[in-house]
Amino acid sequence: MQFPSELLESAVNAFSRLPGIGRKTALRLVLHLLKQEASDVKAFSEAIARARTDIRFCRHCHNISDTDTCAICSNPSRRPDIVCVVENIRDVIAIESTQQFNGRYHVLGGVISPLDGIGPEQLRIETLLQRIHTEGIEEIVFALSPTIQGDTTIYYIQKQLAGTHLRITTIARGIAFGGELEYADELTLARSLQNRMPVDAYVMR
Amino acid sequence: MQFPSELLESAVNAFSRLPGIGRKTALRLVLHLLKQEASDVKAFSEAIARARTDIRFCRHCHNISDTDTCAICSNPSRRPDIVCVVENIRDVIAIESTQQFNGRYHVLGGVISPLDGIGPEQLRIETLLQRIHTEGIEEIVFALSPTIQGDTTIYYIQKQLAGTHLRITTIARGIAFGGELEYADELTLARSLQNRMPVDAYVMR
Fold this sequence. Notes:
The structure is a homodimer.
Chain A: H1 6-16, H2 23-35, H3 38-54, E1 56-57, E2 64-65, E3 82-86, H4 89-98, E4 104-107, H5 125-134, E5 139-142, H6 148-160, E6 167-170, H7 186-194, H8 199-202
Parallel strand pairs in A: 3-4, 3-5, 5-6
Antiparallel strand pairs in A: 1-2
């Protein structure tokens, strides 16, 4: 692409470095911004810059936060004795959006994946173990992806917790609501038969 | 979506106001930026802000420019007597990328579209007519979209130019290179038969 302006080119280059945004999309976005009010574009640019400089991570659960301790960890109406272990911040946002979980979180920052060079040391497992010893946690709910890596991570952490009084659970796996039985994969279907549940637990409350 | 941080939320809101970017994509982009070097994110944010404040439009052809007169209009090796009329800046970039046009441009800023409230007054037709009288232009090449609106715009400008000595042309329309004949629409196929061309003009030089 030949650009008539260096300023345009550097703005397009900036956008096209983002994941999933090619040069044509980047150009469309920059030309869109050029048509907006100068104050709106200033606000856009400042929101991005401030997010990078000012966002912190909660020192308890490693969730994104504006303060040292995140709004969830510092909320006295949330149960301190149940902790949901997730892979990343997007999972926290997804679970919070369901409004069905009233405990705290622990963000691992990934799952064990030797092929990608991610071992237990790269994850925030040590701080999870510390929290279990100091925060009076009674239940750990794993909400990790149903993959080999996710299962390996659960297995590893579970081994570290051997001998504690903790209740260790994982979110239910089975046929999704609205899912067609005939399109479900065999493993999911087989497991959902093995782990069949009483009908009264199935009805949404 | 429930956000654990207001800074995160305002950055996601900023991105999701861009065309074609939903809230989930915006979140993915912001989380990506949070993982980058602070200096890279600063450069990103500044490139956007500078593009909006410092980019100008060429006072001759209305193309995007870093200066009062764009690099194309001020280039002495480009022919001043042939002007390609396009709808927007993206079209200039597309034509420049072919490296097949050595004249100047005129960016209309749209095409006549009464249903969208765009009449001839909303477009930069007046300055095109002025240029024709002052710049010694001898040929106008229309490179507009092959739509009713594009054709209406060509027809309107052509009427304004009645009585001048100008050569008025339009880019060729027909079956695209690599296009399958059987999937071409009837109008394109019919027109490309009517406007059939000698084989020696067809061969790419």
